[in-house]
Write a structure and sequence with these properties.
heterotrimer, A mainly alpha, B mainly alpha, C alpha/beta, B: mainly alpha, MetI-like fold, flat, C: alpha/beta, four-stranded antiparallel sheet, 24% strand
């Protein structure tokens, strides 16, 4: 497929473009938001408590009079940082493990995959519980919990791709002229696995985001005074009947981010796999 | 052929059961030793207790014995379904707490699963009929949306709209059937969307296979083809997904129970972690693991029995 | 002699999001009752597509234009239930790819018996089983051992014969067979083709056979149709086409057959080049780029079918009867 074909497809696939715009908007929101807002995120003022959204407090306020808009921006930062950090660790760990396992000897591959199989037989829930109990709830714990479980999926996918690629002509050719194993991995295998990696990455970020929100909502994730979207939602829960915006704004933001990530992931997957028009 | 089939099936089942038992033991061991490695004394959190009472409590809970012995005592206890006593709620056996809360969570989970399975499969089948028509995009968009809504958003939305504002259902707690509707719907949303999309994709893929052309050439009608040829082949991947599905339902239930104030296992787990109530945490963690791994074992068996190709794979080594 | 099947100006177009592919660009032929018509051509020339189109077995997004008449019924204007009736009783289709044409999770016995459920001249299940047993015996297979087997457990040759059995068991008036003998060795091929020949002679079975196998076609078919790039290029009596091919493409095909007494040192004859892509309409002879006898007119106009004699037609400007200056 030539380059012009890619762009044509891009234009045709409007959901992908739209989701990218939404995601970019959210990123701007997270990064620049607190500077644009009128109040700082921890400025409490009991005179303004529990106000519904208006021109001064775009998202309203919480029970301590803090501006929800700014808090959501800051919450965005935390949620997104946690998600990206955990996924990044998964990326590094998973890709290296998958590459080595796929490209190495049969024996090594068997051992490495058996190791993953055994690890994966332990329920994810249990690992999360154990980590939280061991390390206490908090930002680092959440990142660890996410990272420990996510890399295995990436490793499997990368390994599968490498197994397919390693018998193809260009790899054999490279081996024939004496390229070292690491050179082959970096120059030849990696670029061809890129597509799959990106797709899994998107899915990974969205799962990480969701899980962080989930844990924080239950009180097991990041702890006060750090605020993520999940904790904000948790704060707003008890006030649902009378001040519903306090939970709906953060929850809606979570939903929007996950939606755009999912759509981007789907769109990218379709882009890289043009045979499927399903 | 029948004898060989029987032998292979038995071999498979025994192997899987063996793996299940080993994994479960591993999980129990891991949980036990990790819990006991945590520094600090569980009782110190409470109030200032005198040395003697502390010693007595340690003795009561068997904490003054060597770790290995505690481990074997625990294992022995497991066989008798005795999971020790809670630290926080003194004197209450963990097993009792679980047996009270489990039926509630189970009811919630089963209801949600049935809604998700039924709705997802039917919805997916119907969705596949609109392939390549304009409704396809709308359906896919709707499903994508459902997949992105976290459980706590769907639960609070439902609660706010249907219970608080429209007053159609009770807001919280558990009791009558109408109490169960909103929570199970909220819990079922994500699995429903996932299963619907999975079923739709698989049905469409199967419909493009050559053997469907053969079936059409025999003069079979659309419905006959769907029923006899498509369903079995398209639904195998759905069975494979059941394992992760139930894990998702478990996790979702924690949130749902919190929002709707349902006294299920999830609530106990969250509070016990907050309270550092180790016997309770251990008991719940092991119980959950047992449920998850047991369910996965069952799913593996069902999948094996359904797919004739796997049996061939076994015989070819 | 009545025609059981008449195809008039059939066009089949696949439309996808990005392009249209004109797989079949206007073919017309007829099949007499009790006649065996063979269709020859290279991959992609439209022979499978046009045959599937007759029974409406293509995917929904294909556009079919033209007339397809089966015993005075227009097939492409039938309702869904009418065409299903025809598929189950009158016209049987033997698919090409034996690897994928059978349901992998369904037992073979069931797949065979399912084929005759609608047409059933049999009153009971055991009668049907008996018939299946006899039929499979004729094809060299054992019903009892195949009955409970799954497709992946049997060999390619057995799968292909299963597909043939699926067609024959309902005793249709006409069979459309898409390369039904590719997976069979010479002996089995003869058994199958002889069986079909017998039915042709005894029961007046009409056959449309698509194949690459020129030699078998010449031996068994009554008439042959040669297709190239979605059009018919030569059409006529089987022996004549095989012995005296007139169209340059057919000549190339016949010459490419390896003869037993061929000089081993001579290079193999094959037609150089590739057929054109059919995603744009072609207003020229599709074969002219590869044709050794091409003339200037070939690149500008599309040749119609010219009659060489009442039984033999060729779509080549060389055979234009008006061209006898």
């Amino acid at each position: 497929m030539g380059k012009c074909d890619r762009f044509f497809f891009f234009k045709v696939n409007s959901t992908l473009v739209f989701s990218l715009c939404v995601l970019s908007a959210l990123l701007i929101f997270a990064i620049a938001g607190p500077y644009l807002a009128l109040h700082s995120y921890d400025e409490t003022n009991l005179a303004f408590k529990n106000l519904s959204p208006d021109s001064r407090f775009w998202f309203g306020t919480d029970e301590l009079g803090r501006d929800l808009f700014t808090r959501c921006c800051v919450g965005a930062r935390i949620s997104l940082i946690v998600a990206f950090a955990a996924t990044f660790i998964d990326l590094v760990l998973g890709v290296s493990y998958g590459m080595i396992s796929g490209y190495g000897s049969q024996k090594m591959d068997e051992w490495m995959m058996s190791f993953i199989d055994i690890l994966q037989s332990i329920p994810y829930l249990l690992i999360v519980i154990l980590l939280i109990v061991l390390m206490g709830p908090g930002l680092i714990t959440v990142i660890c919990a996410l990272a420990i479980t996510g890399w295995m999926n990436m490793a499997r996918i990368v390994r599968g791709q490498v197994l397919q690629l390693k018998n193809q002509e260009f790899v054999i050719a490279a081996e024939a002229y004496g390229a070292s194993k690491s050179r082959i991995i970096i120059r030849h295998l990696l670029p061809n696995v890129r597509g799959q990696i990106i797709v899994v990455l998107m899915a990974g970020i969205s799962t990480a985001l969701f899980t962080e929100a989930f844990l924080s909502f239950l009180g097991l994730g990041v702890q006060a005074p750090v605020a993520s979207w999940g904790t904000l939602a948790n704060d707003g829960l008890l006030a649902l009947r009378y001040y519903p915006w306090r939970i709906f704004f953060p929850a809606f933001l979570i939903c929007l981010t996950i939606l755009s990530l999912n759509l981007i992931g789907d769109g990218l997957r379709d882009l890289f796999d043009e045979r499927k028009k399903i | 052929m029948g004898d060989r089939d029987f032998l292979m099936t038995t071999h498979f089942l025994i192997k899987k059961a063996f793996i299940f038992v080993i994994s479960l033991t591993m999980v129990i061991t891991l949980t036990f030793f990790l819990m006991h490695l945590i520094p600090g004394d569980p009782f110190m959190e409470e109030q200032m207790i005198s040395e003697e009472i502390l010693k007595a409590m340690h003795h009561d809970y068997g904490l003054d014995k060597p770790l290995i012995m505690q481990y074997f005592y625990y294992l022995k206890g497991l066989f008798h379904l005795d999971l020790g006593f809670s630290f926080k709620y003194q004197g209450r056996p963990v097993a009792q707490i679980i047996s009270e809360a489990f039926p509630i969570s189970f009811a919630l989970g089963i209801q949600a699963l049935l809604i998700a399975l039924g709705g997802g499969l039917i919805g997916g089948s119907i969705a596949s009929l609109y392939h390549r028509k304009w409704q396809d995009q709308a359906i896919l968009a709707f499903l994508a949306l459902c997949l992105s809504v976290p459980a706590f958003l769907s639960a609070t939305l439902f609660q706010y709209l249907f219970a608080m504002q429209l007053d159609l259902f009770p807001v919280a707690r558990w009791g009558s059937f109408s109490h169960t509707i909103l929570p199970s719907l909220a819990l079922a949303l994500f699995p429903f969307a996932y299963l619907a999309r999975l079923a739709r994709t698989n049905i469409i893929e199967v419909l493009q296979q050559d053997y469907i052309v053969t079936a059409r050439s025999k003069g079979l009608s659309q419905w006959e083809i769907l029923y006899k040829h498509v369903l079995k082949n398209a639904l195998l991947p759905v069975v494979a997904y059941l394992g992760p599905l139930i894990a998702a339902v478990f996790m979702g239930s924690f949130v749902i129970e919190k929002i709707f104030g349902i006294p299920g296992l999830g609530q106990w787990l969250v509070t016990s972690i907050g309270n550092r109530d180790y016997p309770l945490i251990m008991g719940l963690a092991i119980f959950y693991s047992f449920l998850l791994m047991g369910f996965n074992f069952l799913v593996d068996c069902v999948y094996y029995l359904l797919d004739p190709r796997i049996k061939k794979g076994e015989s070819n080594g | 002699m009545n025609s059981i099947l008449t195809v008039q100006d059939l066009h089949v177009t696949f439309s996808s999001r990005f392009e249209e592919i004109h797989a079949v660009r206007g073919i017309s032929y007829h099949l007499e009752e009790g006649e065996w018509l063979g269709i020859i051509g290279e991959s992609g020339c439209g022979k499978s597509t046009s045959s599937k189109a007759l029974l409406g077995l293509l995917a929904d997004e294909t556009v079919i234009k033209g007339k397809i008449l089966f015993q005075d019924k227009q097939l492409n204007a039938c309702t869904e239930s009418e065409i299903r009736q025809i598929r189950s009783k009158e016209i049987a289709f033997i698919p090409q790819d034996c690897m994928t044409a059978l349901n992998p999770t369904m037992k073979i016995g069931l797949q065979i018996l399912e084929a005759q459920k609608k047409s059933s001249p049999f009153t009971s299940f055991s009668q049907a089983e008996e018939a299946a047993r006899l039929l499979l015996e004729e094809l060299g297979l054992e019903f009892d051992s195949l009955k409970d087997a799954y497709p992946h457990m049997i060999s390619g040759g057995m799968r292909q014969r299963t597909l043939i059995a699926i067609a024959l068991i309902r005793e249709p008036k006409m069979i459309i067979a898409d390369e039904p003998t590719t997976a069979l060795d010479k002996k089995l091929k003869k058994i199958v083709l002889d069986g079909l020949k017998r039915r042709q002679q005894e029961n007046k079975l009409s056959l449309l056979l698509i194949s690459h196998d020129l030699e078998s076609m010449a031996e068994y078919c009554d008439r042959i149709l040669v297709m190239y790039a979605g059009k018919i290029v030569e059409y006529g009596d089987a022996k004549t086409i095989f012995r005296h091919p007139r169209h340059p493409y057919t000549k190339g095909l016949v010459n490419s057959l390896i003869k037993i007494d061929q000089d081993k040192n001579k290079p193999l004859n094959f037609i150089k080049g590739q057929p054109p892509h059919l995603n744009v309409p072609l207003n020229r002879c599709a074969f002219c780029e590869r044709c050794e006898e091409a003339m200037n007119v070939c690149a500008i106009l599309s040749p119609p079918l010219y009659q060489i004699n009442p039984l033999h037609q060729s779509a080549c400007f060389k055979h234009d009867p008006g061209d006898r200056a």
